[in-house]
Amino acid sequence: MLIYTLKRLLQAIPTLLIVITISFFLMRVAPGGPFDGERQLPPEIEANLMAAYHLDEPLPMQYLRYMGNLLQGDFGPSFKYKDFSVTELIMQGFPVSLEIGGLAILLALIVGLPLGIAAAIKRNSTVDYVVMGTALTGIAVPNFVLAPIFALVFGVLLGWLPAGGWNGGALPNLVLPVVALSIQQIAYIARMMRASMIEVLGSHFIRTARAKGLNEGEVLWRHAIRPALLPVMSYLGPAIAGIITGSVVIEQIFGIPGIGRYFVQGALNRDYTLVMGTVVFYGVLIVLMNLIVDLLYSALDPQIRYDD
Amino acid sequence: MTSDTKPYSGEQAQGAPLPAGGPNPPRSPEPEADVAPVGAAPIGESLAKDAWRRLSQNRAAMLSLGLLIAIIVVCIVGPWLLPWGLAEVDWNAFGTGPTLENAHYLGTDANGRDLLTRVLYGGRVSLSVALVASFVSLVIGVLYGAISGYLGGRVDNYMMRFVDIMYSLPFMFLVILLMVVFGRNIFLIYAAIGAVEWLDMARIVRGQTLALKRREFIEAAHALGVRDTKIVTRHLIPNAIGPVIIYVTLTVPKVILLESFLSFLGLGVQEPLTSWGVLISEGVDMMESAPWMLLVPSIFLALTLFCLNFLGDGLRDALDPRTR
Questions:
Q1: Overall pTM surpassing 0.95 (yes/no)
Q2: Do A23 and B173 touch (CB under 8 A)?
Q3: Domains, chain B, with CATH or none
Q4: ipTM > 0.95?
Q5: What is the spatial distance between Cα B18 and Cα A305, in angstroms, rounded to a whole number?
Q6: Which region holds residue A123: left if phi is over 0, alpha if psi is between -120 and 50, else beta?
Q7: Best mutation site among A7, A20, A144, A253 for testing chain B: the one with the most B CBs within 10 Å?
């Protein structure tokens, strides 16, 4: 297990290297620079700025310098948010993004799993059709449509909840973004849980369990649910990645000061270091999350062992 | 949602056999007499005919198909029939709601441009992106998967390792960067989205190929001295087509979603062109004073995605011999 974990972590290194390299050069190839404002800077000042940030060096040199700093955990200074280092910005934004994303995943599981199980047990009944129909709607209506509609209905028309803003993470401000972020994942999880539950319920060991006289509740709890959870577990990796990307728009719509907003703003402002920082940070996060999901998977499924 | 999510994988386990779990014998001869197994000479009914018969019995799928065709036709023909142009400004109607006056059937936007006209033009863009990008991903994915599965051994190992690495990239971010870098060019959107979405396809096709290449008809082709390239293109790919079709119908809505996502962030197509994502994001800004600007493109988008998903589900049931 330990060896497997180490192996996976080693494998993550080339992946991250590719991500960093691609995004570094993409960013630098982009027309425009971080100091193109509405006001043209005098050439001397611009030259000084460029020199201060080492932007006047040849690209390969800059790349090596960036990599060297990165290895020491230094993401560099932000070009747009003066006086802030990228690390500071990320550390400011991440708790916010984490709170919303974590709650969204939790909500998706809490709501999605029971819905899927119910639909599978009552297969081809009204319950099934209603749940699956709703799930399909959840998949068909993207979160960047849902979020503004939620804000309009619950925030503006009904006035029950704030339509935007963060307010230090107060509960009423959390509700709409978290729900908007989780609906799509609820739909996917419910569909997957239903499919895998139906498959498990049709298998021999369930028939055996029924044959030996267990009641239906025991069959479900003790025998059916755990194996049925496995495919859903393996979906958690992509689900987390989906929540992370989704949060880019959700943060934009609700005006939430998380990392997603920094990324989009940074890309548009040519804030090289900020964009690189967020990409690297998310890259590491996704790799780690996938690893954790795989390890959890092996804990749930005794057939899978990572011994070698 | 997005590119990184692999939403349907759970159900694909039933539908399109995923490669990782080892090739399950795909489409082995069916007991039913009227069904021709893929790979054998058609006896009685071809697979396509059979699939169509089964699909046409699925009311939800047929309704979706009809609606989808209607949306496509309206998007293509509609703009010619409407009196307003894409960027034409009606100086008498800024941000008016749906009305029969002046033929602004679904209202105008804040700049006095007819919303219905813009939604239909936007539909052309969104749907064309969906088609072209799905096609790009189809070509890359099928070729890559077929080659990898057919050659097998070390080459297969390396090629799939590469796919694994690609999987773990935060793709959405790279696509956003691409858009920022190369400007918002529609051809780039085609290519970028297509280049992102081929990974699942490659895995599916590889799994199919691994299962198929041991079959007798491939061996026979070998014995007859058919070249490898020809075996891949003439024998392997046509026989792996079922899961591929299913997966394409599931890719199209993902691509539409991705395009609207990019457009929503202001990274999609550029004025004067528009797409559903652009219109939605304009609608969000005007949501309080002109809610129809948000609702109309959202309904078009959601309806299309809805139909595509239903159709994909129906096709999967129709093409997968195991669901009979």
A1: no
A2: yes
A3: 60-89+100-323 (1.10.3720.10)
A4: no
A5: 21
A6: beta
A7: A144
